[in-house]
Specification:
Elements: H1 8-11, E1 16-19, E2 23-27, E3 37-41, H2 53-74, E4 78-82, E5 92-98, H3 121-139
Helix pairs in contact: 2-3
């Protein structure tokens, strides 16, 4: 299987945030929306109903904790959550901190093209460390 989400953790080491019980968390390469993260299941699965209730609840608790951490670190006006999987059929959420002053507000983040913001490797690592530290506070 050639799944870009299954290999994301290995392919993008500078963008890694944290390994949680049910999910992995990575920064999106494009940081136009500061803090934009992916939360993806450790195992290749495509649908929520493929998970047991216990695992599904655990996954959703981790998605929620990541959103809370992003809110604490970046102070956005709103957090956007996207779970599509049409292009990459592996369960993954786009967790996107949004500001009412961003040029695409209030439209979805991919409603029109924008100039990508690509950070230096050390900037990804610094941003990831801030999010990871906040997640540790939230999850204990």
């Amino acid at each position: 299987m050639n799944c870009p989400i299954c290999s994301k953790w290995q392919d993008d080491p500078d963008q890694r945030v944290v390994e949680l019980k049910h999910t992995l968390v990575s920064l999106n390469r494009d940081q136009f929306f500061a803090g934009y993260c992916f939360v993806y299941t450790r195992n290749h699965v495509t649908e929520l109903f493929h998970l047991s209730e216990q695992v599904r609840n655990g996954v959703m608790a981790e998605v929620t904790a990541v959103a809370q951490a992003l809110h604490s670190v970046f102070s956005p006006d709103k957090i956007n959550y996207e779970l599509l999987g049409n292009m990459a059929p592996h369960m993954h959420w786009h967790i996107v901190p949004r500001r009412s002053k961003d040029p695409l507000w209030p439209r979805p983040q991919w409603s029109e093209p924008h100039q990508e913001v690509v950070l230096k490797p050390e900037e990804y690592r610094e941003r990831a460390a801030l999010i990871k530290a906040q997640l540790k506070n939230i999850l204990g």
